[in-house]
Amino acid sequence: MRIPVETLLNGVSRTLLEQVLPHVASRTARGQLYAAVDVLRNAARRLEWAGAPLETEAGSAEGALRTAASRLRESGAPAVAERIEANLRTWPAAPAAARAAAARLEIARAFEDLGALPAGVADAVRPILGGHLAAQAVRALALLQPSLLEEISRG
Description:
Blueprint: H1 5-20, H2 27-46, H3 51-74, H4 78-89, H5 96-114, H6 119-142, H7 149-154
């Protein structure tokens, strides 16, 4: 599930103000908490997502889709190959977020198309698309920061 950044940051801000602030007694700490909430409230409209990971994702998807289209053409499914290639030409050049969104949509469409093809043809293409998805999962995990759950549980 994808949550808009603004929704996420607004929820964190609201939690800090409604649940945390009433328990903060120090005037200095309260000031710091208000400053943090101010940053969160303004961040969604001022920050831009890191473009490099999104471009990498879109490039990986494009490569997988082009390879899949070539394999489909060789395997006797030229109509699906042509549809994929036609959709690739409609992807936006920028911003990176729109390009990555188009890539995700096209990968999903390609998997749907495979469901209507003979098993031998689909089986030859699924690993190509799956390879992109596996690599993308690893890239996404690499972006995560170490969890603070241990510190949170200590209070």
